[in-house]
Every structure is written in C-alpha cells, then in structure tokens.
Amino acid sequence: MNTRYSKHLPGLVFLSDLLLLNIALYTSHFVKFNNLVFSNTSITFILLVNIAWVVVSALSKSFYVFRPLWLRDNINKFLLTLIYHLLCVFGIIYFFKIFNISRTEVMLSYTLFFLFVVVQRSVLFFFLDYIRKNGYNHRQIVIIGDNNIADRLMKSFSQHPEYGYDLADYISEEQISGMEEPQLIQHLLSKSPSEIFVCYKEMNTDLLNRLVRIGNTHFIKIKVVSDLMLGNNYAQLISYDDVPVLQLNSHPEIGLKIRFLKRSFDIGFSLVVMVLGAPIFFMLYVITKLSSKGPAFFRQERVGQNEKPFYIYKFRSMKVNAELAGPQLSKDNDPRITKWGRIMRKTRLDELPQFWNVLKGDMSVVGPRPERQYFIEQIVEKTPSYKKLLRVKPGLTSIGQVHYGYAENVDQMCDRVRYDMLYLQNMSLNSDLNIILKTVKVMVQGKGK
C-alpha cells in the first residue's frame, strides 16, 4: 500500500493551528471574565492575533511536517514562530496604543495555545508513525549509485518503516552511465518517484546536473548521500560559493534560534519566578538572617561561558568563613552547614537568588552547573571533555544536578559530567522544560543532596 496524503497535511495542520489558537483565545476570555461577551477592544485583539498568526506562520512554515519525523524539532520551530508572533502582536499593540487588554487573558491565551499545539503535534506524529508502519502515507523512491552506500541506505529505511519510504528501483552507476538523458528520464518517470537518492563516492557533475534538471521539471526531490559514517558526530552543510562542504563536530552546534529561544525563556521564566515568588524570597531572607549569624546572601566566584568568571548568588546555607582552610566541597552531615541551611539544600531553595544571575545573563535556567577554577583544573585533568561544557552558559539547574545531586569529591564531579554531556548533545527547549519539571519534583520531595 503506497497511498500518500502528505500533500494535504500542511493545509490541515495550518487550519488546525488556527482553530486551536481561537479555542485558546475564547477559553482564556471565558476564564478571565466568566462569559463570552466581547468588547470592541477584545474583538480587535482577536482579529489582530488571527491576522498576525496567518502571516507569521506562513512565513515560518511551522505547519510543515518533514520526514523523518522529529517531534522535538517541530515543536521548537513552532515555539520560535509563537515568540515571533507574540513580539509582532505586542509591537502592534504598542504602536496603536491598545493598552486596555487584560494581561492575564493574553498570557493565558498563549500558554493554552502552546499546550494545545504540543498535544496536537504529539497525536499527529504518533498517528503518522503508526500509519506509515502499517504501509500508508508512503513515498516511492529511487536509489542511484554506489552499491555499498545504497545497501546502507536501504537497510536504514527497512529498519525505520516510520520514514514511509518504498523502494521503486535501484539503478547502479554502471547502468545509469550507459543511458542517454531521454532514456534516463523515461525510466525514472515510469517509477513515479517522489524522491531520488543519489549515492556516490566520486560524483559525476554532469550526471548530477542531469538529475537536478529532471527533478526540477517533474517535481522530484533529489537527495545526495555520501559514503561518510558519522557515528556520534554531527554534520552541518556549508556552501562556499558552488562548493558544498560538510563541517563535522562531536556535538551539535547551538544555532541562533536555540540561543534566542533559550535566552527569551530564561528572561521570561526568571521574571515570573522573581515577581510571583517575591514573598517566598523575603521569607527565606528573614529566616536565613535570623537562624544564624552572618549575611543572608552568599556570593562566590564561579567560571561561566567561555571561561569568563562571575559571581554566583545563593541564600547562605553554611556558617560564615566556612572555607578558611581553602576550597572544599560539602558532604553529608557537613558540620559547616547550618540547620536551616540543611533544609534549604534539601529543597534547593538556597539556589533561588541565582535567578538574578540568569536575568543578568551570567547563567541560564538550565545548563551545566558552574564550578570554581580550583576544581575545574582537577576535573579537566581526569575528564578533558569537560571543556566542552564551558562553551555554554552554566545553569541554575542541570540534568546532572537532578540525577546525581551535589558532588562530594572530584571523582563524583567527573561522573556528573557524563550527564551534562548528554544534555549538550540534546539541547532544546523541550529538554529544558523536562529538567525544570524534574527539579521541581526534587524540591517538593526534599531529595536534594
């Protein structure tokens, strides 16, 4: 079965997104005002949001679903589109001075819209994965070129039926070199392929140009497959004029979109926590101040992104002058920790002032925990790959902090690096949200080490 419905999918997703946007708008209005009676301002706002979404979504093409299916990438693209849309709407509101719109209604609308789309995309991807594994929504493909590379590619497709590819034909380099262009066109078109995979070791430029012309004329995607085996490496295509070059890295490059999303999230999340959590901050300040002698806040120099030093802030959990003998790591039943400090460390409440570090740009909400230069030198001696973590902003919480907790010695620090390296390889807003939720769980359960 090779029925294909993909050509209708972008339109359906676009209309579905628009419907969910309006459901979110109407739901938030009902929650805020307990009715569906709209003022002229509310109607203007709804129209503005809809028009802006149609334009921004059409430009970003966030409603397209590409093969292979990567839910995380699709959600990240949608979230970036949502941020652009939000900035666009706010810009128009400010320009036309439409200030009597409920902030609660606006934020609730966007929050609901994001959650609705995450559920929608998850269901859609699960459905596409299921039907492709059962032979529907498939594309016919032709593979051309080197036998060994073609075998690798076909094996990959056979192991992943969710890609939705059916092999219509394989043409070896020897066969294709003996064909005239009209004969080649006739042979390819007789297979009705949606995509042609060109496997090569030494590519014939004339052959490739012929295939590209055929693809452009008959709306067939031409994809070139090299004989590289990347393993755990990551590739980025760079074009130097007419020369395509693959740049290989041991971990994925953090693109501008990811950095923009991450920084936008850091600022927004930190502001919400610091504003809504102000009473908690004040309470922690008072208890810390009264429970033991010394200042409520503690600052310490740490090493940040690109090895730039900065001062990290915490609620003081140890006695004053706890490190007169030099840098030390805390341990279980550490006599330097105050009684109240032990409670804060268990619930990670001592780390809350670092939201100020996040706002300043020294840190991110999620990222490898920052260390002192004294310990970094020892870690690098045992785990040289730790230096990769210094390329990104350190975080208030991290996957290593959640799964491993505080380290009591350098060996444990090195063990924790493994978790942070996994985060570096899979950095995304989705993974950040997952780590934040796990951190909250640790705080509520008091399982901080």
UniProtKB/TrEMBL annotation:
Which UniProt keyword terms apply here? Membrane, Transferase, Transmembrane, Transmembrane helix
Q: Where in the cell is it found?
A: Membrane
Transmembrane annotation, as ranges: 12-31, 43-66, 78-96, 108-131, 267-287
Can you cite an annotated GO cellular component? membrane
Q: Which residues form the Bacterial sugar transferase domain?
A: 262-444
Q: What InterPro entries does the database record attribute to this sequence? A: Bact_transf, EPS_sugar_tfrase
What PANTHER family would the database entry show? Answer: COLANIC BIOSYNTHESIS UDP-GLUCOSE LIPID CARRIER TRANSFERASE, QUINOVOSAMINEPHOSPHOTRANSFERAE-RELATED
Question: Protein name, please?
Answer: Sugar transferase
